[in-house]
């Protein structure tokens, strides 16, 4: 099957760099028009230039945790490109490392605002503004840190775990026209995870079955599948893309 997004329109949050930028480029290459959002306009301009198809990309500065920003982006997307078929809730934050038991509530609230309330209010805006009537696909970017407790990114992990449940709950509510799925990446070479891979070298062997670091395109390819008709009978799924890192076995550290 030829997986393409011809005639489709997508909104991708956190798309000025890293995984979000790779998803936006992959969608444009597959034929979609894409609205890219992030907080800083200069990062968005750079990402739009790198995608390099000005007629297919529109950048809007917006905060991923704010309902009013989501509503503004949905309205501007429909005005600009005429529809909204795919929403990728990709932006996330991680202001705190350490045990939940010692967590500052300000860091807890901030992490939940962006990582959990954000995907809900953006999905609500897309659903009410377009998808309820016309259908669509929502893809929420979680993490393998949301699948197993005990890691150092503790509050972040709680939000990413809750995002899986939120996505599955929404999937039960918005079918049959709207699908909601989750991508759970492992360690991917972006700014977000820099502390975890910097210094390891490009040909480093990592302790999991596929032995390499993830690239943003590894996640973008999976996000293309979930956006396209190739996944038309898939909803509420959690697609782990981690080089086999959560499997355990002889490679695990
Ligand atoms: N990299 C990994 O190893 C890894 C592993 C598992 C899951 N993930 C998940 O993958 C997603 C993308 O991560 P990444 O590694 O690509 O991160 P990244 O390279 O740091 O990029 C983050 C993007 O989100 C935007 N952003 C951050 N806070 C925002 C906010 N409050 N409102 C709007 N936009 C915001 C940033 O732009 P501005 O700063 O201009 O807003 C940027 O475009 C996240 O959900 C992350 O949890 C990443």
From TrEMBL:
<dbReference type="InterPro" id="IPR036291">
    <property type="entry name" value="NAD(P)-bd_dom_sf"/>
</dbReference>
<keyword id="KW-0560">Oxidoreductase</keyword>
<dbReference type="GO" id="GO:0016491">
    <property type="term" value="F:oxidoreductase activity"/>
</dbReference>
<protein>
    <recommendedName>
        <fullName>Short-chain alcohol dehydrogenase like protein</fullName>
    </recommendedName>
</protein>
<dbReference type="Pfam" id="PF13561">
    <property type="entry name" value="adh_short_C2"/>
</dbReference>
<comment type="similarity">
    <text>Belongs to the short-chain dehydrogenases/reductases (SDR) family.</text>
</comment>
<dbReference type="InterPro" id="IPR002347">
    <property type="entry name" value="SDR_fam"/>
</dbReference>
<dbReference type="InterPro" id="IPR020904">
    <property type="entry name" value="Sc_DH/Rdtase_CS"/>
</dbReference>
